[in-house]
Design brief:
alpha/beta, binds 5'-O-[(R)-(carboxyoxy)(hydroxy)phosphoryl]adenosine, 357 residues, five-stranded mixed beta sheet, Nucleotidyltransferase, domain 5, binds zinc ion
Length: 357
């Protein structure tokens, strides 16, 4: 076993459609970060199919665990604790990771640490980087979450606002589906957008009440739908549309993607500024801004966040590209803080579909 001063933690992540395992030393030094994505299994359905995801996790878990130990150059015996993302996510998928973590912890007599996946996204910016200076203003932008937090430490989060309908990543995925551009939509729309004209299609920025830190993305997605297909005739599943994505040229798709991306990112930046203003005037000025979740890989958001940091003269933490999307390094890294605080779980640790924060 390694010494307690530099704990070595094995992390496991299986909340959605990535089977991942990582070994992290001292909470920040990533020794390995193995991610087996299942995108090809779900692409033809245009979204993640929970039953397929959980079966694929079962097949991939042991090879991924072996690979991560091999890449890190450690044996399971050298690991000080086993951490697992146990919430939130698809329950059947979470159960696979939780069962694997419990089995390893029990059979090797190591502490078990359950980690909230959403909180861990806000730790990704500390991996292979300097320690984060708290309190921090945190923005999680993923396929399931769009939330602002005041982070007082790596583990203590106060929710400031969240989406009342679609998450921003979900809006990217739905817009890609409307454009019949592929799955997952985020990277595809990001790429198309870089060739398009963001001023070409007028799309709404839903900001809710003047002081609201909540988000709403369903209106933007519907505006794209109507722009592409025209207004529906009839309601619900029986609705028919005047046009389809097949009527669009490549340039049309690029322009729609660019206009959508500009609107989606504008809303994130306006809400981030609002949260900043509210915290600062309440004497809770953050010392750092941390962004996490799959959409933190977005090229426009990254540029705008860097500019925000320069404008406010504040440290902004964008995760390195390998730590933006779902991964286990963020699970193992965050678990360090529970490990040093002696906060362990027992074998009753449950998988849960929703976050506690
Ligand atoms: O954090 P994540 O891997 O999984 C969840 O916890 O949900 O985020 C996945 C989301 C997907 O909706 C995906 O389309 C989006 O992140 N995403 C992006 C980009 N790369 C991934 N969205 C915008 N731009 C990107 N470059
Ligand atoms: Zn995630």
């Amino acid at each position: 076993m390694s010494t307690v001063a530099v704990p070595l933690i094995l992390g496991i992540e299986s909340s959605c459609d990535e089977t991942a395992a990582a070994v992290v030393r001292s909470g920040r030094q990533v020794l390995s970060n193995v991610i087996a994505s299942q995108h090809e299994l779900h692409a033809k359905f245009g979204g993640v199919v929970p039953e397929i995801a959980s079966r694929a996790h079962i097949e991939r878990m042991l090879p991924v665990l072996n690979e991560t130990c091999e890449q890190a150059g450690v044996t399971l015996d050298e690991v000080d604790a086993v951490a697992v993302g146990n919430r939130p996510g698809l329950i059947g998928s979470l159960l696979v990771g939780v069962a694997a973590a419990k089995t390893l912890a029990w059979s090797m007599n190591k502490p078990l640490i359950g980690i909230d996946h959403v909180v861990s996204h806000l730790y990704a910016g500390a991996l292979d980087a300097e320690p984060i200076d708290y309190p921090a203003l945190g923005l999680v932008v993923s396929g399931g979450h769009t939330s602002l937090y005041l982070a007082r430490s790596p583990l203590e989060m106060k929710l400031l606002g969240h989406t009342i309908d679609d998450a921003v990543g979900e809006a990217y995925d739905k817009v890609a589906a409307i454009l019949e551009a592929g799955f997952p939509g985020g990277p595809i729309i990001d790429k198309l957008a870089q060739q398009g004209d963001a001023a070409s299609v007028k799309l709404p920025r839903t900001l809710l009440e003047a002081d609201s830190l909540d988000f709403s993305y369903s209106g933007l997605k519907t505006a794209v739908l109507y722009h592409v297909r025209g207004k529906p005739v009839g309601r619900g599943a029986a609705a028919t549309f005047e046009r389809s994505a097949a009527d669009l040229t490549d340039v049309d798709k690029q322009n729609i993607a660019a206009s959508f991306q500009a609107a989606a990112v504008d809303v994130l930046m306006i809400k981030l500024q609002r949260a900043w203003d509210q915290l600062t005037s309440a004497d809770e000025a953050p010392r750092c801004v941390i962004i996490g979740g799959g959409v933190s890989a977005n090229s426009l958001l990254r540029q705008r966040i860097i500019a925000f940091g320069e404008e406010h003269d504040i440290d902004v933490r964008l995760p390195k590209m390998g730590y933006c999307l779902d991964n286990a390094a963020m699970i193992a890294g965050l678990a360090h803080w529970r490990y040093v605080a002696g906060q362990f779980d027992d074998l009753e640790l449950a998988a849960a579909a929703s976050s506690r924060i």
